[in-house]
Write a structure and sequence with these properties.
The chain is an alpha+beta fold. About 40% of the residues lie in helices and about 10% in strands. It is built from 18 helices and 6 strands. The chain has a 4-stranded antiparallel beta sheet with strand order 1-2-6-5, with no helix packed on it. A hairpin with a 3-residue loop joins strand 1 and strand 2 (about 15-20). Helix 10 packs across helix 15 (about 380-395). The radius of gyration is 24 Å and the shape is elongated. The termini are far apart. This is SHQ1 protein-domain-containing protein.
Length: about 450
């Protein structure tokens, strides 16, 4: 069956669903709303949407078809007039199946592609007994506590508790990487095909700890003091790059003028972005603890930083090298590094990579990129989703780098639609308040600069 193109809007009384179809025959159309589920069927088209509130299928519901635009306009009343349905523009979230458990094979394991864990799953706490009693609002006690902690973004502690893994745990985590450590085996496919993003010698036999150590060693080896000094003292292009403001950042800054982040107008998606959302996998995710969820949120930062660097240095016009640039600067892509326990450590890693690998290696340029990251996160999950969709497109259609779309970006694009805006914005404020110094990078940059000036 084909999922048709669609869009959803609302007013106080109704939900409006516009569906793009061709060659419609009225006698073949099936439309139904039951509780929070809307269903449309017209072979070969099929559409099922899960709304955040209930609909009513009564005489007030209607549908009409515009022959000129091939658009079927459907209208259903809300069960509770005046109720606001949030996130109707997040299409993957509407399409996702709700409340389904992972399918298992006859041996009790997940019936999923090789090397992948947990496809159709939902976010919940790690307790499964008395805490799993479902209450009237559809949440278990564990889930309610879990989301309550996340939504208290003002007091959200971004420090992740550090514990040394046991030998058994280390063995279990070997060669698990990507979004929420769900994947393995994918890097074998690109080992012999010139994967220039990959910085790991043996990714399929790596561990969380070994990937972090190898990343630092490779960065130390790659940093070139002469190259750094040349960009600092002789490259006249750097000033123009620092002065440039990417369009997404400008639009967020304009929306925030005189307003709090909560009051800024919701960002609208382009038709191309909507199409890309339609093509995303329709999944929800088990993230078994608050520690794991914090790590997933922290994983947004390297991707957004790599994107920010690329759009600054290409003046908002991606090049054939953009996929490499974003992937190389994002430590959780190039090195599959998910070991970060604080925002400050993520920032140090991103900044080190920006001074070791790309075309322009300049401290002030890196700080400008952090300003962009701050504003993108201030824009909430819609701004972040725009970035993720763009990066996913860069990687997905590359002959080699597509693997990072499969193990990182696709899942982030789907998951972010269910993420907390307040938690994402708390990330922004933490980035603004975490101050880095050149001495933190471990490369004696101050001495290198002083020696060059004296010389």
């Amino acid at each position: 069956m084909i999922t048709p193109q669609f869009s959803v809007r609302q007013d106080a009384e109704f939900v409006y669903i516009d569906i793009k179809v061709t060659h419609i025959k009225a006698q073949n159309v099936e439309l139904r709303a039951e509780d929070d589920v809307f269903m449309f069927s017209l072979p070969p088209y099929y559409l099922r949407l899960h709304f955040p509130g209930n609909l009513v299928d009564d005489d007030r519901a209607s549908a009409s078809f515009d022959l000129d635009t091939s658009m079927l306009a459907v209208k259903f009343p809300k069960e509770n007039p005046g109720e606001d349905f949030p996130d109707l523009d997040l299409m993957t979230k509407l399409l996702a199946r709700v409340g389904e458990e992972p399918q298992t094979d006859s041996a009790g394991g997940p019936s999923t592609p090789v090397g992948k864990n947990k496809v159709m799953i939902e976010e919940l706490g790690s307790d499964h007994d008395s805490d799993n009693q479902v209450m009237d609002d559809g949440l278990t006690d564990a889930q309610r506590k879990y989301y309550s902690e996340l939504n208290d973004a003002e007091n959200f502690d971004w420090q992740i508790t550090q514990e040394l893994p046991s030998a058994e745990q280390e063995s279990l985590l070997t060669a698990k990487y990507g979004f929420n450590l769900q994947y393995s085996g994918f890097l074998r496919q690109t080992a012999e095909t010139g994967n220039d993003i990959n910085d790991l010698d043996s990714p399929e036999s790596s561990t969380i700890d070994s990937r972090s150590k190898e990343r630092i060693e490779k960065e130390d080896k790659k940093f070139d003091p002469d190259y750094y000094l040349s960009d600092l003292l002789e490259n006249e292009d750097i000033a123009e790059l620092i002065e440039f403001k990417p369009q997404l950042v400008l639009s967020i800054q304009q929306s925030l003028q005189g307003k709090s982040a909560e009051d800024m107008a919701e960002m609208e998606f382009t038709e191309l972005e909507k199409k890309r959302m339609m093509n995303l996998p329709r999944r929800t995710y088990i993230i078994e603890s608050t520690v794991s969820l914090k790590a997933v949120y922290l994983g947004l930062i390297p991707i957004i930083f790599g994107y920010s660097y690329d759009v600054r240095t290409t003046f908002d016009d991606h090049t054939s090298e953009s996929a490499w640039t974003v992937g190389k600067l994002a430590a959780n892509i190039a090195c599959l590094d998910s070991s970060f326990t604080s925002i400050w450590k993520v920032m140090i890693a991103c900044t080190r990579r920006s001074l070791a690998y790309p075309l322009y290696r300049n401290w002030e340029l890196s700080l400008s990129c952090w300003d962009d990251v701050y504003y993108i996160l201030r824009g909430g999950k819609r701004a972040v989703l725009k970035v993720l969709l763009d990066v996913d497109h860069l990687l997905a259609f590359h002959d080699v780098y597509y693997v990072y779309s499969k193990i990182v970006l696709e899942d982030y694009c789907s998951w972010i639609q269910t993420a907390s805006d307040s938690v994402i914005r708390s990330l922004a404020h933490e980035i603004r308040h975490n101050k880095m110094a050149k001495e933190d990078l471990g490369w004696n940059i101050i001495e290198i600069e002083n020696s060059a000036i004296e010389a």
